[in-house]
TrEMBL record:
It comes from Streptomyces omiyaensis. It holds the Pfam family PaaA_PaaC. Coiled coil: none annotated. The gene is paaA. This is 1,2-phenylacetyl-CoA epoxidase subunit PaaA. InterPro entries: Aromatic_CoA_ox/epox (IPR052703), Ferritin-like (IPR012347), Ferritin-like_SF (IPR009078), PaaA (IPR011881), PaaA_PaaC (IPR007814). It comes from the Bacteria.
Length: 311
């Protein structure tokens, strides 16, 4: 019977059909999806911190309103993704507990500080730009709830990317000091943005299996290259340079060549030694503790009202 169920699962994946929560699936497929979707959700929630830092310091009401909308969107992305993870039989509490105790990760990119207002533009353009490059293929992921969550997320991400690009363009075309602030932010955020795509393919634990299951549709290096090819011309349009002397269009390859990534830094940040790891996780734990009374009140209210109307 197990062999028959595996055959049905394999045939569905091979035929590019969606696997839904009630379908039989290999335990390893479920576990890998829980790992990736939970860490994706954690990234969205932690990712609210660096930008929220600038909501009260935005240079105009317009920029403040845009940034508030973006940070609110990230919270929503987290909720879609925790909900998608719950369809695999895990609870949000359990996932948050794993995040708070370092047993699950969040994206390395959010362990860097947002030092000036220009960082908000650089994050929108580069970090959300990289996220789009990574998330568009996930709309074709074999697991239904994850793929469908990505469709809505990608629509909102393109607003995130465009507002960041536009903010950077305003600075780049502004005073000399503003141009220098935009260039400094791009210098600091470029290489960590390339690390968002994960380690090189030959050091990636999950890529082969994730591609066999059609969770991952392209390898880490392929999507990283795709992002560099998109961002390099955009930097020129912005009148800003990227901090890579080896970045150069290669006609034969039809891609940009780019310099070596500092993988020691990447693995160090993953180990918890990035500039902001402690700050981010401590703030996350504090927010969770401060919010306990809200969760308890909501649960009490639900118990009371469910009892009354017998829904
Ligand atoms: N930061 C932290 N951990 C990372 C990482 C990064 N940038 N890149 C890889 N890792 C981890 C992996 O999670 C894995 O560890 P684990 O086994 O404990 O989970 C290990 O490094 C080996 O990497 P692999 O390449 O084998 O792992 P994956 O196959 O999972 O590939 C990934 C990594 C490309 C990030 C993939 O998980 C993925 O596509 N995830 C969904 C997208 C996502 O999580 N994006 C987060 C960016 S933030 C964001 O999108 C928010 C937006 O609003 C800006």
């Amino acid at each position: 019977a197990q062999a028959a169920r595996e055959a049905v699962f394999d045939a569905a994946v091979a035929a590019d059909e969606r696997i839904e929560p009630r379908d039989w699936m290999p335990e390893a497929y479920r576990a890998s999806l829980v790992r990736q979707i939970a860490q994706h959700a954690h990234s969205e929630i932690i990712g609210m911190q660096p930008e929220a830092n600038w909501i009260t310091r935005a240079p105009s009401l317009r920029r403040k309103a845009i940034l508030m909308a973006k940070v609110q969107d990230e919270a929503g992305h987290g909720l879609y993704l925790y909900s998608a993870a719950e369809t695999l039989g895990v609870s949000r509490d359990e996932l948050l507990d794993k995040l708070h105790t370092g047993r699950q990760k969040y994206s390395s990119i959010f362990n860097y500080p947002t030092l000036t207002w220009a960082d908000v533009g650089a994050i929108g353009w580069l970090v959300d730009g990289a996220a789009i490059t990574n998330q568009v293929p996930l709309c074709r992921c074999s697991y239904g709830p994850y793929a469908r969550a990505m469709v809505r997320v990608c629509k909102e991400e393109s607003f995130h990317q465009r507002q960041g690009y536009e903010a950077l363009l305003a600075l780049s075309r502004g005073t000399e000091a503003q141009h220098a602030m935009a260039q400094d932010a791009v210098d600091r955020w470029w290489w960590p943005s390339l690390m968002m795509f994960g380690p090189p393919d030959d050091e990636s634990t999950h890529t082969a299996q994730a591609m066999a299951w059609k969770i991952k549709r392209h390898s880490n290096d392929e999507l990283r290259q795709r992002f560099v090819d998109i961002a390099a011309p955009q930097a020129e349009a912005l009148g800003l340079t990227l901090p890579d002397p080896d970045l150069k269009w290669n006609e034969e390859r039809g891609h940009y060549d780019f310099g070596p990534i500092d993988w020691a830094e990447f693995w160090d940040v993953l180990k918890g030694n990035g500039p902001c790891n402690d700050q981010r996780i401590n703030q996350r734990r504090r927010a969770h503790e401060d919010g306990a009374w809200v969760r308890e009140a909501a649960a009490a209210y639900a118990r009371k009202h469910t009892g009354q109307h017998g829904e």
